Amino acid sequence: MTLPLYVPVASPVHRLSAGVKLLCLAALAVLLFARPTLTVAGAALVGTLAVGLGVARLPVAVLARQAWALRWFLLALLVVHALTTDVASGAHTVLRLLTLVLAAAVVTATTRVTEMVAVVERLCAPLRLVGGRPQRVGLLIAMALRFIPVLVERADRIRAAQAARGGAPRGVRALRTTVAPLLVQLLQMAHDVSEALDARGADDVPAHRPRRT
Amino acid sequence: MRFRRPGAAPAAVDVADPGRGIELRGVGHRYGDRVVLEGIDLRLTEPRVGVVGANGSGKSTFARLLNGLVVPTDGQVLVDGLDTRTQVRAVRRRVGFVFQDPDAQIVHPTVAEDVAYGLENQGVPPDERAARVAEVLERYGLAGHADHPAHLLSGGQKQLLAIAGVLVMRPARIVFDEPTTLLDLVNARRVAELIAGLEQQVVVVTHQLDLLDGFDRVLVVDGGRVVEDAPPGPAVATYRALMEHR
User: Fold this and answer.
1) Segment holding B64, helix H or strand E
2) Same structural domain for residues A26 and A94?
3) Do A60 and A91 belong together in one domain?
4) CB pair distance less than 8 Å for B129 and A213
5) Interface pTM, i.e. ipTM
6) Within 10 Å of residue A190's Cβ, how many Cβ atoms?
7) pLDDT per residue as tens digits for the range B167-197
8) Which of A81, A111, A141 lies at the terminal end of a domain, its last residue?
9) Do B113 and A142 touch (CB under 8 A)?
10) Average pLDDT, stretch A158-169?
11) Considering only alpha carbons, which residue of chain A is nearest residue B167?
């Protein structure tokens, strides 16, 4: 699945605080599973699309990419349900999952990562009581989002280098021949990134950092 | 009342003296048994200092000594009088560092968020932070990319972003470790022009000798020692002569 990043648009959804959006997302998830009816799931999907495309004015492609990336998984889910229970309950399950994924996409596309991270840091504030640093948790999340595409790019580069030298392994062998050099590269990169964090004052974080805007 | 152990170093005092520049006193560094640098005594006060040398000559370690990323195993490195061993945080606030590979330096998913990272660490208030980020992005032609994912930028834009992330912190000195190695000619020229226009003291480690045009001083590092310390013309001639005999 692709990770939708912030899509800058001046909309009321964008202006809403990250905490409220995450609460709404959690409430939607609870509703979908507490009231498992086709009407509720259908209405939630329509509502999600209305908020995402109508109010937040996100490009259709942002949401379509999420649905498209899930197509095989959703299809498999439908088939399994059709074989084990019935098609209607399969369609219902698919509808609920698709709605949740699209709602999550609307939240991430309308919220800056720093705002999301600030919410996580506030939730992790009790860690301070045991000597933990919530900022570190926030940084961890931001860095995970930042380095997923880099990781994919590095893996592609390794596969391309192998292909250029006549290697075109498939299956488990492909996994093995890609994973080992990728791990070596990632360890080197982890060292470089830790140096960069030091150079940019990662250890300099004040005990109570001013809130992000 | 607190007593100091006999022979212990005096408590570090975080008072910088900007006129002193960067001083290396009897500096050496080794990784295990391997000597990487030795016998370096220098004082760098010139606005533009270049460092050249073959691969593995120790120049990247030399660069990392200047802002405390590497602490010398022998001797002492002082930045404006601050010891990199005992006052590393104060040193890093004064000396920015730009790495060769911007992908390793960009730690946040979007452009503006990444530029703001160093300021967050310094505890700069949000309003001032936003203003400084906007100003730096505007100055380096990245304003239109503020909310774009960093991984979608071109190589040249990523290097500009990495430099912007350092400049926004307003260090007094900046160390560049091979800043143009991964760039095409156009972007390399752009970065060279950017470096030439900086008001800060700049130390540039590079293999691209034309980057050193107009520099005040160039150090040639070979086998872990500074074998030449001169203006660009004679220093580059020494470097070329060294390389021809390999």
Assistant:
1) helix B59-65
2) yes
3) yes
4) yes
5) 0.78
6) 12
7) 999 999 999 999 998 888 888 898 999 999 9
8) A111
9) yes
10) 79
11) A200
- Please state the rounded mean pLDDT for residues B46-68: 94
Are residue A79 and residue A18 in the same domain, yes or no?
Answer: yes
Question: Quick one: chain B helix, strand, coil %, rounded to 5?
Answer: 40, 25, 35
Number of domains in chain B: 1
Identify whether B115 is part of a domain: yes
Q: Is A201 on the interface with B (CB under 8 A)?
A: yes
Nearest residue, CB atoms, B107 vs list A149, A197, A204: A197
Question: What does pLDDT average to over chain B?
Answer: 89
Asked whether residue B194 is domain-assigned, the answer is yes
User: What does the pLDDT read at residue A3?
Assistant: 55
Q: How far apart are CA A109 and CA A194, in angstroms?
A: 28
pTM of the model: 0.77
Q: Note whether residue A196 is domain-resident.
A: yes
B41 inside domain: no
Residue A144 in tokens? 């995970």
Instruction: Check A199 against B169: CB less than 8 A apart.
Output: no
* pLDDT band per the 50, 70, 90 thresholds, residue A1: very low
Map tokens 């834009």 to a residue: B157
Provide the edge-to-edge strand list for the sheet that holds B95-98: B95-98, B173-177, B201-205, B48-53, B217-222, B225-230
- Single-letter amino acid, residue A195: E
> What is the pLDDT at residue A207?
44
**Beta-carbon contacts below 8 Å between A and B:** 106
Mean pLDDT of the B134-163 span: 90
pLDDT digits (tens, 9 = 90+) for A96-120: 999 999 999 999 899 988 888 889 8
Residue in chain B closest to A195 (alpha carbons) equals B69
Q: Cβ contacts (< 8 Å) between A114 and chain B: which residues?
A: 108, 113, 116
User: Could you list the residue range(s) of the whole structural domain that residue A55 is in?
Assistant: 12-111
- Say whether pLDDT at A54 is over 90: yes
Residues A107 and A20 in one domain: yes
**Which residues form the domain of B176?**
47-71+88-244
**Does A187 fall in a domain?**
yes
Q: Is residue B54's pLDDT more than 90?
A: yes
Say yes or no: A38 and A103 in one domain: yes
Classify residue A100: in a domain, yes or no: yes
Indicate the number of domains in chain A: 2
